[in-house]
Amino acid sequence: MKISVNWLKEYIPVTHTVEEMANKISLTGIESSPVHNAEGLDKLVVGHITSIAPHPDSDHLNITTVDVGEDSDIQIVCGAPNVANDQYVIVALHGAHLPEGKRIKKGKIRGQESNGMICGLDEIGVPTKYVPEAYHNGIYVFPEVVAPGTDALTALGLDDDMVDMDITPNRADTLGMRGAAWEIGATYDEKPEYTAPSIDESKIIDSNDLTVDIENKELVPDFLVRTLKDVTVGESPLWMQRRLWNQNIQPVNNVIDAANYVMIEFGQPIQAYDLDKLEEKHITVRNAKSGEKFSTELNNQDDEENTNTILNKNDLVVAAGDQILGLAGVAGGISARVTNETKNVVLESAVYDGAAVRKAAQRHDLRGDASNRFEKGVDNGAVSDALVRATQLVDENAQASEISDELVGIATEAKPTVIKGKISHINHLMGLDLSAEEIMNIFDRLGFTAELDNDDVTVTIPTRRWDMSIEADLVEEVIRIYGYENLKGTLPTGMETAGGYSPKREFSNKLRNILLGQGMNEVTNFSLMNKKEAEDFNVINTNYTKLLHPMTEDHEYLRTSLIPGLVNNVAYNQARNNNDISVFEQARIFDRADGVDRPKEIEYIAGAISGNIALDSWNTQSKQVDFYDVKGIVEELLSFTNIDANFEYHATNKISNLHPGQTAEIIADGQSIGFIGKLHPDYQKEHSIDETFVFELNVDTLFGMEKRNVQAKTAPKYPSISRDLAILVNKDIESGAIVKDIFDNGGKYLIDVNIFDVYQGVNIKANHKSLGYHLVFQNPEDTLTDDTVEKAFDVVKDSLVQKFNVEIR
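Now predict its structure.
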């Protein structure tokens, strides 16, 4: 919101520079900056065209004589199509500086002397979209007599210094000049003075030309209208136009400009309609019917197919029968807009539900000044006053013959907020020791009514400050106006809280560091994905969580697995010839149970590896990653968790997008904690990636499992004894089951078992495989004998024969 200093002077005394004001306001919590509109421009004056004649050597140029307040008139050649005699115009004299470094000099144009330039608003720095439409392709003509030689920038208000206040969402009361005057006035201990708007009582009649009905009262707490008859629509007075374009609003006509002016003055949007264009003389505020069409000047007029907005049942509209007059709180339509031919006008002042306005503006991409204010909130105590002010301005500038009484569709009583607090508590929360008188003075500066009873204070907040509701708001106002810069620095007292991570966070960081230590790269992906990606690895079989208002179709659902995001990372890199990929992500997935709206967040860690796991070197050869490489990474990760559990890998074909012959579910003491496997060839082809292996582990489950009690032991004094075991077994039997059985029957001295040979092929029985295991026995307390080892070894072999029907080789 740009605050005009000249406009502000109508409410409070202003004696400071805009730099000082911007700095002072910023210290109260609203970031502000100074704006100098006319910097770098000079020698721009008002000129009066006293004569005009065609250029003898051009069919589009004219030779004008212009009074610029000097001893004699000057001659200027002008090519504007709208130049005419007796106009008051903007003249750039010889030596004038214009925007973008342009400089005007005397010269000859096709043989005729030209001593300056007659300018349009856009040529002196006003953006074209804020220039009145009548002057888009020509020079600007003052709508009233201005003394020749007057500084044109002053006459146009373009030398008005401004304070640009970066309004926070909770301070929408400063989106109007009156609210801003209260804020700035409180900063400088000045109370603003306002002139109450009024209407010529002799013109007010009890009109029955129009009726109003509100269907959805929950979304429309206030809706007031007035009608004005026999108005003369034309150009607005200069003082109003210059205040509008300084606020980045294009002047249109004296009715629409009055509505926009009141929006800036009060912060209350006003809508204007042509009464004679209404299909029915009955205005209804209702929800749109699905498929209804609505067209506004905010639509894309360059594309005829896009000029209509298709409404749905969630849109709130102002209508006259089937005619849509406007999208409530967002934009007015073109079907009943006010033009120069309009004779009878309807003015609307209303309050709409902020959330409904925001969603409609976002849904149809129609955000503007009005919707911005309704979204943040408007003062329902000023709805009627704003309507009176708009009516007053239209009557003054368009000369209405009749003005109707206020027609009330619905009105909600504007009640001030009453907050109770204690002076001592306010001081305690601020860390200050202000007197009751000082605090009461601050409330008075803000325009609040406060009553003091010993230590208790009761503060009545006017409706313009709807952001205040609790005692903490009082504390904030006191400390803002007192000045943050006046707070004294103090050292903290009391017990100190030591910083550090929670046990779960430390556990998560440990897992992350383990994978980083194994050469993997960490990535971070969006938590949102499309429906297919959410379905691809929904191993936990959870319900899908869809956003109500997704940004795009690719970001509709909360993820149920980290794998799809990692697959996209692999595809992205391989598409750019980066084929050796080793990435992981530690993040949350979302598990939503039946009948529950909000999903549960569960932390997972997952990885994806593709390409070579070892590269060519002078002493090594490149090696492409396989299942066992990735399994080794997972085993290393699990070993560092120090969990007191037996981890098993069970082959599975239940995960459709993983290879059925190279996938395993990871089990810890009978509980599933994740999976590991190769992506299915069809899935790899679909995503245009090479062979890729993935794994995913439930971090929350791992953290909740019992940890192993680690104790330091001395190095064993006695030697170990090893035995090798070769067996022939059915190919469908898993090695893990055999290893488990060996440990179960190997006795207390068996300390290690590992597989060293796998063979399946020639000279081996069909559907069988040959496995070789290395068993290590050791007694830490005594020398282990061969006899003891042989007995244990025999028990192992007997058990394998009985349980798995193996052949000992």
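The chain has 20 helices and 41 strands.
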